[in-house]
Amino acid sequence: MSGELPALEERFATLAFRQLEGLATPAERAELALLLRQDVAFLARFAHLARQHGLLSELLGVPGASPAVAVPTPAEPPIGGATQVLRRSSRRVRVFRRRPASQVGWMAAAAAVMLLVLGGVIATWDGRAVVGHLESTAVVRAPSTPVRAGDRVDGSGREYVVLRDGSRIGLSTGTTITVASADRIMLTTGMVLVEAAPRSAAALVVETPQALARVLGTRFTVVAVDGRTQLDVDEGLVRFVRRSDNATLDVPAAAWAEVAAGKPFVIHHRTTAVTTPVADPFVAGVNLNGGAVTIDGNRWWSQREAVDNGLVLPPAVLVTATAVTPTPAVERPLATMLNTAVHRIDQDLPLSLPLADGAYTVEVWLMENFAPGHRSLTITLEGAVVARRVQDGDAIGVWHRLRYPVEVRDGRLDLVIGATGEQAHLMGFSVHRR
Amino acid sequence: MSTDHDQAIKALMAERAPLLGYIRAIVGDPHLAEDIFQDVVLVVVKKGAPADDAARFPAWIRTVARYEALGALRKRHQQVPFDDALLDAFDAQWAACEEAEPHRPAVEALRACLERLSPTSRKLVAAKYERSQSGEQIAAEIGRPVNTVYVALTRIHKALADCVRGRLARGAADVG
What we know:
The complex is a heterodimer. Helices cover 16% and strands 37% of the residues of chain A. By secondary structure, chain A is an alpha+beta fold. The longest helix of chain A has 21 residues. Chain B folds into two domains: 98 residues, Orthogonal Bundle (Rna Polymerase Sigma Factor, Chain: A), CATH 1.10.1740; 72 residues, Orthogonal Bundle (Arc Repressor Mutant, subunit A), CATH 1.10.10. Chain B starts with a helix and ends with a helix.
């Protein structure tokens, strides 16, 4: 490994490999993009490098990492779909954080591509036909091993059970399920992601030792670990039944609930969006990085005024002024307020405002002002997380007015916007006495 | 599922390695690239592929992969590293590369060219592609700066590329 390359060549080599290794930082990716844009020779080399990277991995990669493919044959009519690795959403990450390290991690080393052959009994993916009667429910793990009804499936992070109606059950690493029938999954331990097809007949049921989740078409996650079961609903409505007393909750989209010793069996909403003015008496409002503004008939402080009144922002906080049209449309003062913000990159954004002890309602105002789906925020008030996944997947211009009750006991209102690895930002907030 | 459908799946699996390289170039993360590839499989399983012209398949499947990759990045709240114009240009380069070095003959040529590498280069290639080590891991193992490793790997890639092109050209000449 001797010899010198010009600095630009060396930089290209570093950036290109770091991108292909998944190690490039956002700044490095931007730098690579700039190089590729500026010089078509670099672009050609990057394309060639990436292709050769793929071919060498194919030639030299360990056998276990090669695709295990069950290509349908004429003798065994293909009637199913493909397995699909579970996407690692922020929701899952949140769940993982509560689990032992040995049980986390969707991505096992085996990088198999798995085509499902559903044993001649499952409807085709496009719904044209149901071939035969359900005896085996469906999955194939590499290579094409159908799992019969009653079989146990252990998850290594890449298994995907497909039921006859197209519903898919994804298994995380360390998960064990029994496919009791096409309508019933027994989850012994671990986590499953359920993408249930709309059903008109029997509900799909996921059972755990503590609870049942019944569904007629939705997307949700069930975690059963350490004697507790958590349900997290993305879409639709899921009936959640606590086995110990048959208590029932209908958990809607963007909400979760859990069955656990000592924990209330209640629905937790991920966020609380409101559109109407708060009825409680106005105490203060702050237009971050902006001037004084009147919202709902109340005069908000400019950031300067708020700082003069004791607002504490983190040192070297970044500021943003944009010209985004809020969605839904709003009056000019509110649009003005939503287009100024403070933010931080890769760090939480804490704010603190002097406030007499007491009960308050706090409204937090946010708008996506950079890129679609750019961030997923966590909001903490007085040390307690009050919302997660805020702005998750928002298009540019989508704004939120979020309202939370809070009890101040230390003479200061402490608000933290968290966004690990992303930009935490805040347009403004207001405080109302309850 | 039609025979055309089966053919599409087979064609996709045959293109897995280069397509994974294509996706990795866009998204970086190798695990995410695997996820996206499987999303692409799902698209083919659900929708089939254009049956009118097999030669169009690689370009079509790259378009699907690109769409899935961008969707996956947005869903993970990651910034898309390359804009549409750059991705178009990248795809054009990729197509040119594919035309000059068709997949299967290129793999066979690559296999032969690997034999001609020096022992030191062969060790680096083994670390990178057999053991899937990152540049940083290799650098730590051999006690050299990581940039040096990347430069060395770049040179090896170039040597392999020259060798592959030479073998393909000779092969074409032999056939011709």
